[in-house]
Design a protein that fits this description.
alpha/beta, 2 domains, 4-stranded antiparallel sheet, about 30% helix, about 25% strand
């Protein structure tokens, strides 16, 4: 599904004097991610995690080496082909990136509206996506999938952090992507909302056979959801590990229930 073959990525940083300094973000990365796998990428800040994601969705090109998605060398694609490729890849961000002046339903439908009439998008067009209805109907379908259908008419300011992230997941899924990229999707959430978001991602893999890549510095999040994980340190791949299934964690219906159970001596 996704393959990195001896990938290096360098950037040039300009100082105040205009001098350029070369920084190598990734060093000789080789790894593969399987179809319908939840794959984690862990590392400290500055380890190259986000750069690796940007190579998968062709927002960056490798300085050397090859990144292939479904056997296609992304760097060899023409601009129009790259746009089509990105439509097959959903993206979830740490800060949700929802538009404050649009309703929840309008936020989710936005990718469909933006891609309507775009050159070369006819085969997976907005209203025609796999025979689905118009953008709003498709958006409502995805909101129901993430258990946010009742909030369709609200605006982002009326939602909790976990609810915003589930809306962001619905938006990322509205084009029925083959791959879902998650950049620190839970780092701004509390434990209760983190569990809700990760349960939603597990359901996406189970019901949609979507390949999911989760970048996070939170080891518990990676261990609780991923099949395997790559460990990055200073831009170098130090290993890819099979993740041992964690002990089953108690599930809570609310934060107050979680807090009471934990403060009374139970697990968090």
């Amino acid at each position: 599904m996704i393959e990195f073959d001896q990938v290096n990525k360098t950037f040039t940083q300009r100082s105040a004097t205009g001098r350029g300094k070369t920084v190598q973000a990734l060093h000789d990365i080789s790894l593969s991610i399987d179809e319908a796998e939840i794959f984690g990428v862990v590392g400290e800040s500055g380890s190259g995690k986000s750069t690796l994601l940007r190579l998968i969705n062709a927002l960056e090109a490798p300085s050397s080496g090859v990144v292939r998605v479904n056997g296609v060398d992304l760097a060899a694609l023409r601009p129009a082909e790259k746009r089509l490729q990105r439509r097959r890849i959903g993206m979830i961000f740490q800060q949700f990136n929802l538009l404050a002046n649009k309703t929840v339903a309008a936020n989710v439908a936005l990718p469909l509206s933006l891609h309507r009439g775009m050159p070369g998008t006819k085969s997976r067009g907005a209203a025609e996506t796999k025979g689905r209805g118009a953008p709003r109907e498709r958006a409502l379908e995805m909101l129901d999938f993430v258990n946010m259908g009742a909030h369709a008419a609200k605006h982002p300011a009326q939602l909790s952090g976990g609810e915003k992230q589930r809306v962001a997941i619905a938006r990322a899924l509205v084009n029925e992507p083959d791959i879902l990229l998650c950049d620190e999707p839970t780092s701004s959430l509390d434990s209760q909302h983190t569990d809700e978001v990760m349960a939603t991602l597990l359901r996406v893999r189970q019901e949609m056979d979507t390949s999911i890549v989760v970048v996070s510095h939170e080891l518990e999040v990676i261990r609780g959801a991923c099949d395997r994980a790559a460990i990055l340190e200073s831009g170098r791949l130090t290993g890819v590990v099979d993740i041992a299934a964690p002990e089953a964690r108690e599930r809570f219906n609310s934060y107050s229930e979680r807090a009471r159970r934990y403060l009374e001596g139970g697990q968090e």
